[in-house]
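Work Package 3 (structural annotation) set out to generate three-dimensional models for the target panel prioritized at the project kickoff. During this period the team completed the workflow that converts sequence records into discrete structure tokens, so that structures can be stored uniformly alongside our sequence database. As a representative example, we reproduce one entry of 164 residues exactly as it appears in the project archive.
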Amino acid sequence: MQTVWASQKTRIRFMVVRSNVLETVDQVFGWIYFLVWSLSFYPQAYENWKGKSVVGLNFDFLALNITGFFAYSVFNVGLFWVPYLMRGGQKVSKIGIALLVIAWTFALVTLFVAVASKITWLDYIYYFSYVKLAITLIKYIPQGPAFPHCSLPPDPVQGGLMVK
């Protein structure tokens, strides 16, 4: 049996519905989800802090969570290369490439330093978290000039930019 993939010809049609009621419901559920999800982490963190131990932290959760984030990252990066999802020849800027090179060079150099036992693995993990912190602080800067006709959304759960 031969299977033919016609992904280049497949189209998905979305219908956009403008409704104040739906928008309000969306906002309410978005904020409820955001608050519940955010608050769900605090009881365990409080117990760990109170007991001065991570005994209550299940490492299965950590491993599954990391795998989930990795899978989500592969999915999002993979979408970047799907031809019919690309937007008008967008590409990473020279400044963006330079920042990525700096970040990954730092991560790799510190990895080799950790392998050579010049720093502890805990230090390496902290250094890698500094890369994430730096990226979090600067990643939205290019959005302003690239999309001057957009504004930040009132709903942090939706993320991204909204067209005015």
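Strands lie at 150-151, 162-163.
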